[in-house]
Amino acid sequence: MLKKSILIVFSIALISCSSKVEKDKVVDPVLSFLNLNFGMFIHYNMGTYHAEQWAKPNHDPKSFAPTNLDCNQWAKAAKSAKMNYAVFTTKHHDGFCLWDTKVTDYDIASSLYNGDIVKEYVDAFRKEDIKIGLYFSVWDRQHKIENGNINPDNIQFTKDQLTELLTNYGEVICIVIDGWGSKWGRGPNFEELPFNVLADHIHSIQPNCLVINHSCKTDLNVTQLVHYEATHGQHCPFDNTLPSQQGPTLQSTWFWEKGYENQELKSVASVVKELNFANSHYSNYLLNAAPNDKGLMDENVVNRLKEIGETVSFPKPLVALPKIEKPHKNVKVIASSSSSEEFKPENVIDCDLFTRWQFAEGDENPWIELDFGKPETFNQVICGEFKKGVEKFKIEALIHGDWKLLAEGNRITNNFNASFNDVTAQKYRLTVLESSQLPRIAEITFVKY
């Protein structure tokens, strides 16, 4: 009897100990985030009312004038698409805030709208069991928080706003930060405003909130997850091991403009192919859907999201993260020429929009070739220019000693995408046939959807 009693006590102690270990087990927020797979990016702010993708500062707050705003409609649309998290533009580069911030009057409280839109967003999406993320621009044109003008006062201003967002709205799984160390605009760089200054502040309030810097770099010293800028030719590579998310748009731009209610949207097939590729390469898919000037998702958007939800599926949850390795680690790049060491050929495969390849002046047959080291199968190419100059080009693969045409076009601009039938080759190349000036090509990425 005594032995039985001891055995029971021991078993209870063992179960208790096991439960405590399970309870105390630390869950990696990066791993948890990647298992969310699919999210909704929501660009809605002052730019919605002025047909400006980057709204100018000093707009009258009363010009922000939704007449039928309904965050519940947004949330239900996201749920219908099987989205598991969302990211909302609390403040864009113009500095207008969609919550009643205590550090400036350039906010929703100075408009005619009676409410806190950040709170309405948070409440609506939580009701649908969708995790909450926030977008926040450090570059603030209204309050002159920009490159060359970073000082203790405006750093404190930024910290105060982040404190409000992280203390008044419950758990926030990520903050997507823009206008900080970015290749666009006049936001502060990481020398005048180091990454840890704001990241440490964020983590002092919410330790598990991921700081995702929208800077177009893949350097994990300045972001906890890479954000691939899908609208500018930066794409998750075929051998990606970086924890990341990819951000395309359902409509043609980030913010809504008049006429979008009748626009042909990104197809279901494209979304599903891109989502599946991202999810199988340690990357989430954050699809932007922009509300209109009434404060509603257009009917075409709502319908398309529902169609996506009827088609999409997700892989089994990740149980561990891979060893992080350099993108395109086995790929070698050569070119007909380069204008300088700054514009070397290998820049086109580093997944960094700050670096580019430029051929030398006088090169009459400029080309750049990617050698993957062994045959690889692809059916999609994505590339983009930083300085536009390509007027005509072609993309080929070397098959049995001959170059086979895969895609051709006129201007590459900042985001060229082309699909082709599956091709297996070791070498692929881009040839510039005509150019108006010396172009700067930022990225060339081959993938298989």
From TrEMBL:
Its EC number is 3.2.1.51. InterPro entries: FA58C, FUC_metazoa-typ, Galactose-bd-like_sf, GH, Glyco_hydro_29, Glyco_hydro_29_N. PROSITE patterns: FA58C_3 (PS50022), PROKAR_LIPOPROTEIN (PS51257). Residues 314-449 form the F5/8 type C domain. GO terms for molecular function: alpha-L-fucosidase activity. GO terms for cellular component: lysosome. It is an enzyme of class 3 (hydrolase). The keyword Signal applies. Keywords: Glycosidase, Hydrolase, Signal. GO terms for biological process: fucose metabolic process; glycoside catabolic process. Belongs to the glycosyl hydrolase 29 family. Alpha-L-fucosidase is responsible for hydrolyzing the alpha-1,6-linked fucose joined to the reducing-end N-acetylglucosamine of the carbohydrate moieties of glycoproteins. This is alpha-L-fucosidase. It comes from Lutibacter oricola.
